[in-house]
Specification:
Layout lengths: L1 H10 L3 H13 L1 E3 L6 E3 L5 H12 L4 H15 L2 H12 L5 H13 L1 H7 L18 H12 L4 H32 L1
Helix pairs in contact: 1-2, 2-3, 2-4, 3-4, 4-5, 5-6, 6-8, 6-9, 8-9
Length: 183
C-alpha cells in the first residue's frame, strides 16, 4: 500500500517521491532504521532507480543528485561521474550526504580505491579516473556534513582525526628515536 502511494506521488512528478521510489528500486525495499533490515517491496532495478533519480535531480533535488552519484560510484565504477554528481548535490550546502561522500572520495583517493577493490582500468569508463588523496579536503567536507548533524560524517571525521593523530604520534616516536641514535 505504501509503495503504491509513493508510486502515485512519483507519477505526479513529486521530487521527494521520485527520490524515495528510486531508492526503493535501488535497494529492493525500505530500510528499517531500528534494525537495519530492508523490508523487501520489489526487485532491485538499478536502471529504474537511475531513471527516477535523474528525473528528480533534473528538478534540482540534491538528495537525488547524491543518490545518482552513488549509483555511478557503486554500480558503474564511473568515479568521475560520481564525483561530478556529488559536487552538484553539495552545491548550495544543504546535502550532508553529498559532502560526506565527497569526503570519502578525497580521504581514500580514487587510485587507492581502485587498488584496494581490485578495480582495473578495464572496469571503469573511459576518461581520467583520478582523484588524489587529500586528507585536509576530506576533513573539511566531513565537517561541513557534520555541521548539518549528519552522524556518519561525524564518525568519519572522528576516525580520520584519530588516524591522523596516531600517525603523528608514530612520527614523533620515530623522530625521538632518530635523535637518540644521532646524539
Amino acid at each position: 500500500m505504501a509503495l503504491e502511494f509513493i508510486r502515485q506521488s512519483a507519477q505526479s512528478g513529486n521530487q521527494e517521491a521520485l527520490t524515495e521510489l528510486g531508492h526503493i528500486y535501488e535497494t529492493g525495499g525500505i530500510r528499517d532504521f531500528r534494525t537495519g533490515k530492508i523490508h523487501k517491496l520489489t526487485n532491485v532495478r538499478i536502471e529504474k532507480a537511475r531513471e527516477l533519480f535523474k528525473e528528480a535531480a533534473d528538478q534540482d533535488c540534491r538528495l537525488a543528485q547524491n543518490y545518482l552519484g552513488c549509483l555511478f560510484f557503486n554500480h558503474d565504477k564511473d568515479f568521475m561521474s560520481a564525483i561530478k554528481h556529488f559536487k552538484q548535490a553539495a552545491q548550495g550546502g544543504k546535502c550532508a550526504q553529498a559532502f560526506n561522500n565527497l569526503g570519502i572520495c578525497y580521504e581514500v583517493g580514487l587510485e587507492e580505491y581502485n587498488l584496494t577493490n581490485n578495480v582495473s582500468s578495464n572496469d571503469v569508463s573511459e576518461g581520467p579516473q583520478q582523484l588524489h588523496r587529500d586528507i585536509n579536503k576530506a576533513a573539511d567536507l566531513y565537517l561541513q556534513a557534520a555541521h548539518q548533524s549528519y552522524v556518519p560524517a561525524m564518525v568519519n571525521l572522528a576516525t580520520l582525526l584519530f588516524k591522523s593523530a596516531k600517525k603523528l604520534q608514530t612520527i614523533d616516536i620515530w623522530r625521538q628515536e632518530a635523535q637518540t641514535r644521532v646524539t
